[in-house]
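Need the bound structure for manganese (II) ion, inputs here:
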Amino acid sequence: MATAPNALLPLPKLSPEVTAWVESVRQLTQPAAVHWCEGSAAEIKQLTAQLETSGELIRLNEKEFPNCHLARSNPSDVARVEHLTFVCTSRKEDAGPNNNWMAPAEAHAKMRDLYQGCMKGRTLYVVPYCMGPLDSPLSRYGVEITDSAYVVLNMATMTRMGRPALDLIARTGTFVKGLHSIGELDPNRRFIMHFPEELQIQSFGSGYGGNALLGKKCHALRIASYQARTEGWLAEHMLIVGLQNPKGETHYVAAAFPSACGKTNLAMLIPPESMPGWKVFTVGDDIAWLHPGPDGRLWAINPESGYFGVVPGTNPDTNRNAYNMIRHDTLFTNVAVTADNQPWWEGLKSGTPVTDWQGRPYDPKNGPAAHPNSRFTVSARNNPDYSPHSEDAKGVPISAIIFGGRRRTLAPLVYQARDWEHGVLVGASVASETTAAATGQVGVVRRDPMAMQPFCGYNFADYWQHWLNVGAKLSKPPQIFHVNWFRRDEAGRFLWPGFGDNLRVLAWMLDRATGAAHAHETAIGSLPLPEDLNLAGLDISPADITELLRVDTDAWRHEIAEFHKYLGQYGARLPAALKSQLARVEQALG
Ligand code: GTP
Ligand code: SPV
Ligand code: MN
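Answer from helper R.:
Posting the output first, comments after.
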């Protein structure tokens, strides 16, 4: 029987629900073979060799980039597709104005048609995975069925993939079913469907990133956020980072920024030389699962085990650790290559691209050499500052939550919310310039509450209420802040150096959390004065820092009016506390 697992997996360890589902998918999709992934090094090696032979993976310069590969995706398939992503709840209003909705029966029928015989001549891979440490009660399981070996390789790095996950599923019974086929990579036959009530994901027609690595955005955010609401926790688009001050005390911070707005870089921050004694440890770079703990604090785990990070901009100056991390054992997608077969991307200070991301001779007339959303897939263990507490079953305690966006104007470098309720308003009011992480126009400001606009698996109004409910359970809630590393002057120059120097802002936040730092109150929240920030050794003009910390009341009045209008679409579902927090800010702005 084609679904019989390889000899390495003894049958008693298999969940009957998994085998029955795999068999039903096999009958529907009609693959030539079925491969149950065990997650061993030998298996990864074999799949890598297979993709090298087929030409889907190109081995890069072995001396400079040992064990690194390049994959080129279909040029029409280079980013998440939000307009083709649906949340299929029984009631439309449960998905909310923030999601595309389709009735579950209609979506199932549409997908069934697409899946019919779609794996003929291909191998069906069964990818069991665990999101979170294997021994954590906070972790969740899933099985992705895919016909892409490239997806298998990515999932093997990004999740705890293979046999231990299958064993855990057999023991606990509950798992998310994710069915993925690359189909014909036809943008007109491409859908990313979520059925949160059924713990199911169905994806067709894309092999890229969040569309295809179903453990990531589809499971760990859209499905998990829905589950988290009923179970009393939060699934968020947040990095988690540990900051050790010169006294040796470590505080953990979680930060939500929209896609391609600096999470990986903040999670891997390198302290500036003028801040000796600080150490930074990465727990996660993209997703956090946050649980109220018995001690009244909020505890976080990173459900992932690797980074699917933005390549352009990574260099030894912006982040030496990130640069070194991707110099070995890394899978690159859609970067350019040099004459001696090294990967190349915009922002690198050395090397010359000869072949662009599409495999054509590089010609600047065709745009950038590397795709702006080119990515690296790398194990978190490659990160020299990977926190050993990333593996803690109970997670790490969170002292501060940071929201942020990419705004050329308006949003100051940092401000602090009064309390949790005001913090929920601050998170809900995030707006940011769109980036290449999703298809569509880049650089236009759009509302992106909690950096979850593309990822919340249910109605935002219910989500904000859930945030308020979680806060009410915390006797020691994290302080909430908003940052903007991306302010520019009229010539387009960044006013703030960013990257490692962001620690100066984080240090102020930690002092605020312990009551040790000064701030002054404004209508939108509390801000530091220039002298409240540690700017020692930083080459920044007084005019720039003044501008970065300025609250332009007129512009904010306009911003808040726009936000008020936006909230209108959530109607009667909007939490009363959010409305009163908004009214308070409006009143303060006058
Ligand atoms: P996703 O993986 O899409 O969720 O992105 P991310 O939020 O992890 O963003 P990432 O850290 O990869 O940064 C995206 C881009 O912003 C890269 O090109 C970075 O070089 C750039 N960037 C990150 N931090 C800063 C900063 O502090 N200042 C400036 N100017 N650019 C930054
Ligand atoms: C993002 O877009 O926020 C990402 C990349 O982290 S993807 O996995 O494609 O969602
Ligand atoms: Mn992301």
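Comments: Residues 237, 259, 286 surround manganese (II) ion (ligand 3) (CB under 6 Å). The longest strand covers residues 123-131.
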